[in-house]
UniProtKB/TrEMBL annotation:
<dbReference type="InterPro" id="IPR006620">
    <property type="entry name" value="Pro_4_hyd_alph"/>
</dbReference>
<dbReference type="GO" id="GO:0004656">
    <property type="term" value="F:procollagen-proline 4-dioxygenase activity"/>
</dbReference>
<dbReference type="InterPro" id="IPR044862">
    <property type="entry name" value="Pro_4_hyd_alph_FE2OG_OXY"/>
</dbReference>
<keyword id="KW-0408">Iron</keyword>
<dbReference type="GO" id="GO:0005506">
    <property type="term" value="F:iron ion binding"/>
</dbReference>
<keyword id="KW-0472">Membrane</keyword>
<dbReference type="GO" id="GO:0031418">
    <property type="term" value="F:L-ascorbic acid binding"/>
</dbReference>
<feature type="compositionally biased region" description="Polar residues">
    <location>
        <begin position="125"/>
        <end position="144"/>
    </location>
</feature>
<feature type="domain" description="Prolyl 4-hydroxylase alpha subunit">
    <location>
        <begin position="97"/>
        <end position="319"/>
    </location>
</feature>
<keyword id="KW-0812">Transmembrane</keyword>
<dbReference type="GO" id="GO:0005783">
    <property type="term" value="C:endoplasmic reticulum"/>
</dbReference>
<keyword id="KW-1133">Transmembrane helix</keyword>
<feature type="region of interest" description="Disordered">
    <location>
        <begin position="125"/>
        <end position="147"/>
    </location>
</feature>
<dbReference type="Pfam" id="PF13640">
    <property type="entry name" value="2OG-FeII_Oxy_3"/>
</dbReference>
<dbReference type="InterPro" id="IPR045054">
    <property type="entry name" value="P4HA-like"/>
</dbReference>
<feature type="transmembrane region" description="Helical">
    <location>
        <begin position="7"/>
        <end position="27"/>
    </location>
</feature>
<keyword id="KW-0223">Dioxygenase</keyword>
Length: 325
């Protein structure tokens, strides 16, 4: 320690800087230009953040985009334009693990455009077990990957990136490739977690690993009965109120009419935990990892079977990257 302090005085820098250098040897000792290129203003190997960022760093385009997006539903020829002024509303559901309900995260024109892009790509879903991609009866839905440079995809990614704030470090972490998932009658996804038991290799030559630090699950199509998203181990801050919608729509909406059926957005499930009803445009956000980077088993969840109809949702999995250790 004395040596470090003396060295620091000589060098005219703080001891903590040197300590940082000592505990993060990969930053200083690694000679390859490959690794050092991750520090500072560098291009991300997997995902150009410049694409989504432009949508929320420059809000001057919002007036023109609103008009274009409104006509999107009726006119296939008008290219999608991101409504950077779109506003959504959040409600805390659980603090530990953190679960947040997001109203109106995805707009109707975005849903139209996302579905149009993904429609030809739907294929049977797979799961990762022991590091391998498998198709199993645990997950009977179909899945479609989404190109991140598609304007509607980039638009939703920029909004969700913005939501995350400093949970992702600019130029180091990234949003990960999103996918759409579709359930029809009888299809389900048994209890699973979105995080990986051990971080995955980045496969981009960067000598990094990553894990899914959090998840957004946004419903795009909700014409179904059943199909709730069930977190068997989650506990709410407070149980849902008998007032239902009045409370769970933020207390801002009208009161319940006489004899009106109120459908709460989520409920306490009879087998324990919380069950979220699919509502198009709305999303659930939760944090997958503990601070020590291990997976939080309380975020385990299931896509309950669809009794009838069709449910389509968007998975967004922000990735946190770790240096090779
Ligand atoms: C924001 O967008 C406007 C209109 O497209 C453009 O004129 C302006 O240069 C942009 N500003 C920045 C900081 O990119
Ligand atoms: C990581 O943190 C969680 C929550 O505090 C704890 O339960 C778990 O035992 C920790 N795991 C390790 C390997 O430190
Ligand atoms: C919704 O689902 C029902 C039954 O599954 C079906 O009859 C109806 O046509 C669907 N509506 C739309 C708009 O897809």
């Amino acid at each position: 320690m004395a040596f470090i302090n003396i060295a620091a005085k000589i060098a005219g820098i703080s001891a903590s800087t040197i300590l940082l250098a000592l505990v993060v040897p990969f930053l200083t000792n690694f000679p390859t230009p490959l690794l050092t290129s991750f520090i500072g203003g560098f291009p991300l190997p997997d995902y150009p953040l410049a694409v989504p960022f432009k949508f929320f760093t420059n809000t001057t385009t919002s007036t023109t985009t609103t008009t274009t997006s409104l006509s999107e539903d009726n006119n296939d020829d008008i290219p999608f334009t991101c409504d950077v002024s779109h506003r959504y509303r959040t409600e805390l559901v659980s603090l530990d693990p953190l679960i947040i309900y997001i109203h109106d995260l995805v707009t109707a024109p975005e849903i139209t455009s996302l579905l149009r892009t993904a429609e030809p790509a739907f294929a049977p879903s797979s799961v990762t077990k022991n590091g391998r991609q498998l198709q199993t009866q645990d997950r009977t839905s179909s899945t479609a990957g989404l190109p991140r440079d598609d304007p509607a995809v980039a638009c939703v990614l920029s909004r969700t990136r913005s939501f995350l704030g400093t949970m992702l470090r600019d130029g180091w972490d990234e949003m990960g490739p999103p996918q759409l998932v579709r359930y029809t009658t009888g299809q389900r996804f048994n209890v699973h977690h979105d995080w990986f038991e051990s971080p995955r290799w980045a496969n981009d030559g960067s000598m990094r690993t990553w894990n899914r630090v959090a998840s957004f699950f946004a419903t795009l199509q909700d014409n179904c009965t059943g199909g709730e998203t069930h977190f068997p181990f989650a506990k709410p801050i407070a149980p849902p109120s008998p007032w239902g919608e009045r409370i769970w729509n933020g207390g801002l909406t009208r009161q319940k009419e006489e004899g009106e059926e109120v459908k709460p957005l989520w409920r306490e499930h009879e087998d324990g935990g919380l069950a979220f009803r699919p509502v198009a445009g709305n999303a659930i956000f939760w944090v997958n990892l503990h601070a020590n980077r291990t997976g939080d088993a309380r975020t385990n969840h299931a896509g309950l079977p669809l009794v009838d109809g069709l449910k389509t949702a968007m998975n967004i999995w922000p990735r946190q990257y770790y240096p090779y250790e």
